[in-house]
């Protein structure tokens, strides 16, 4: 009788644990909930993934340096590789440090060195040390890491992940095999978003996912976050909701702004654009960024004037990034277009 009640209690405990885990998974942000766990789930950079897979299968994985823009799959790729290499022993064989951790010279000398200097008793495979956002490490820590990588290659492999390879010292470059992760194409991002939207039963309208992809600009993480925000905030995913949720200017607004810049005089253009920005809460830097796409498509017999216009917009964007007065910069942008119109008509 006692054994029967004990078995029922164990079964209830297991059921409760499963329900708790299901609730925790359901409450995760979609970025983590749908992070690829296997190599086959990765949606881009087939050449890089196939190369790393061959190296893993042959037991010749070198030290790696993965770099490229945010949200292009660098961390997901190396974690999927680690799961493929270690399986259920992932927890004991992988050390992952992120930018949120203190990664000064003391961490390299103590924590990383201690982990890399030992081997698992019943495994011939080397351990894996993942240093995410390695471009935020101090120079002293990078120089200390150089010696650790060299000394403990027999026991461990190192994977450095960063956005800017130029911030990694040359000594680490020479010790690693480098792979650049380019921004995802629209087709790749759209394919993944479609899978997530179907799994979450999102109310997707025509053009909604395409708008998420366009605003993501090759960043898969950003596109997924936009999709989740729009679905939770509006209950449906259509282009209008996507642009309202993100605060980005709609393409129709940019076309209207470009029309005023190319056809109206200075005072009218200044008044209309200021009113539009105030009404829809638009930032000038977003307008400048979107205008660039349309300017490159302008048909004119004066390509030099168009090139000069792009140069002036680049200077304007740089000034806005350091906190200059937006009203003055708006006037400057309109003045630049007035001059370009005269040059194109001459």
TrEMBL record:
Keyword annotations for this protein? Answer: ATP-binding, DNA replication, Nucleotide-binding, Nucleus
Q: Does the keyword Cell membrane apply?
A: no
Kindly give the SUPFAM superfamilies that the UniProt entry links to this protein: P-loop containing nucleoside triphosphate hydrolases, post-AAA+ oligomerization domain-like
**What SMART domains does the record tag this protein with?**
AAA
Supply the InterPro entries for this chain: AAA+_ATPase (IPR003593), ATPase_AAA_core (IPR003959), DNA_pol3_clamp-load_cplx_C (IPR008921), DNA_Rep/Repair_Clamp_Loader (IPR050238), P-loop_NTPase (IPR027417), Rep_factorC_C (IPR013748), RFC_lid (IPR047854)
Pfam families cross-referenced by the UniProt entry? AAA (PF00004), Rep_fac_C (PF08542)
Q: Which domain of life is it from?
A: Eukaryota
Q: Which GO biological process entries does UniProt record here?
A: DNA repair; DNA-templated DNA replication
Q: Domain (AAA+ ATPase): give its ranges.
A: 60-191
> Which cellular compartments is it found in?
Nucleus
The record ties this protein, via Gene3D superfamilies, to:
1.10.8.60, 1.20.272.10, P-loop containing nucleotide triphosphate hydrolases (3.40.50.300)
Predominant cellular place of this UniProt entry's protein: nucleus
| Annotated Gene Ontology cellular component terms | DNA replication factor C complex; nucleus
A single GO molecular-function term is: ATP hydrolysis activity
Q: Which NCBIfam families match?
A: PRK00440.1
Q: Which family does it belong to?
A: Belongs to the activator 1 small subunits family.
- What is the protein's given name? AAA+ ATPase domain-containing protein
The organism of origin for this protein: Prymnesium parvum
């Amino acid at each position: 009788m006692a054994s029967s009640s004990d078995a029922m209690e164990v079964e209830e405990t297991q059921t409760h644990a499963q329900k708790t885990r299901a609730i925790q998974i359901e409450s995760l942000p979609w970025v983590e909930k749908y992070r690829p766990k296997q190599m086959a789930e990765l949606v881009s950079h087939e050449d890089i993934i196939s190369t790393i897979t061959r190296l893993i299968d042959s037991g010749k994985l070198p030290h790696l340096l993965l770099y490229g823009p945010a949200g292009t799959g660098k961390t997901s790729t190396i974690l999927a590789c680690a799961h493929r290499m270690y399986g259920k022993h992932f927890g004991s064989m992988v050390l992952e440090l992120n930018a949120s951790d203190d990664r000064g010279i003391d961490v390299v000398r103590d924590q990383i060195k201690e982990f890399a200097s030992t081997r698992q008793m019943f495994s011939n495979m080397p351990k894996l040390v993942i240093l995410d956002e390695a471009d935020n490490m101090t120079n002293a820590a990078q120089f200390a890491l150089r010696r650790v990588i060299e000394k403990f290659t027999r026991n461990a492999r190192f994977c450095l992940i960063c956005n800017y390879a130029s911030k990694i010292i040359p000594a680490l470059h020479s010790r690693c095999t480098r792979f650049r992760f380019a921004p995802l194409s629209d087709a790749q991002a759209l394919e993944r978003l479609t899978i997530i939207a179907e799994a979450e039963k999102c109310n997707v309208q025509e053009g909604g996912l395409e708008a998420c992809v366009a605003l993501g600009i090759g960043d898969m993480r950003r596109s997924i976050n936009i999709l989740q925000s729009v679905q939770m905030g509006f209950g449906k995913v259509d282009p209008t909701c996507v642009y309202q949720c993100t605060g980005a200017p709609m393409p129709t607004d940019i076309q209207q702004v470009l029309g005023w810049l190319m056809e109206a005089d200075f005072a009218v253009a200044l008044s209309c654009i200021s009113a539009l920005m105030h009404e829809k809460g638009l930032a000038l830097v977003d307008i400048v960024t979107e205008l660039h796409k349309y300017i490159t498509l302008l048909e004119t017999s004066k390509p030099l004037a168009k090139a000069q216009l792009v140069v002036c917009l680049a200077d304007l964007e740089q000034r806005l990034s350091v906190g200059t007065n937006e009203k003055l910069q708006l006037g400057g942008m309109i003045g630049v277009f007035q001059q370009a119109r005269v040059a194109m008509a001459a």
